[in-house]
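Take our chain:
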Amino acid sequence: MSWDHFCQIFLKTFLPPFFLRDLETEIDERRQGSTESFQIYVSKLLELFDRLPEPFPLSKQIQIIRGNARPAVQNYLSVFPQNSTLNQVIDLCDNFEATEVSVSRYVSGTNSGQKPLLEPEMAASRSQRGFRGVNAVETDTGFNKSNQNPKEKNPKGTSNNLNVTRNFNPSPRQDPVKTKHSAEPRNLTCFNCLEKDHRITDCKKPMMKFCEVCGRRPIVGSRCDSCHELGDSSEN
């Protein structure tokens, strides 16, 4: 038994029914993706060709590759001979895709300097870079071009910087007004009437005497009897 005969028997035994017909249909319907590179597209088709029990002739493979490519690629390849080799077709399409990338990066007029980033998620945002813009600077400084009088002309020998100095009038900084009791806590207790929200100096009730040591009240002198006796004993 030859090797080719063995392969035919093996494929006939283990391949599912209609495998060859379904594989040929899959090859015919395999199209190049809109963002798929030409080389990846060709490598996938060549892998499908290799799975055929009897591969297509090379000319038919190139015909399928050219016919199932993107419309833009087909238009580009239409000006080249149909008998081009597979390597020639791949080289032509590589040049075409490089031209597409170059065109996508082109900006009419001057170069904006904002080319596509390779790692956009790693780039700092505008707020992280500290960019505030011209409007923010004009708002903070109080200077705006609309404040200038368009009819006003500069005398000879003077510059426009005089207008900037004359119109620059930033608003004064508003500091919070400090009152007498602004830094003090609100939970106050009067030592005279024992009521809250005022001091003893602001109390409107009759003043009562209390011990200057322990705070006991009411008393007659400056100390209560207990503190007075304690003071006498300490002096002796």
Q: What stands out?
A: Residues 136-141, 161-165 have pLDDT under 50 and may be disordered.
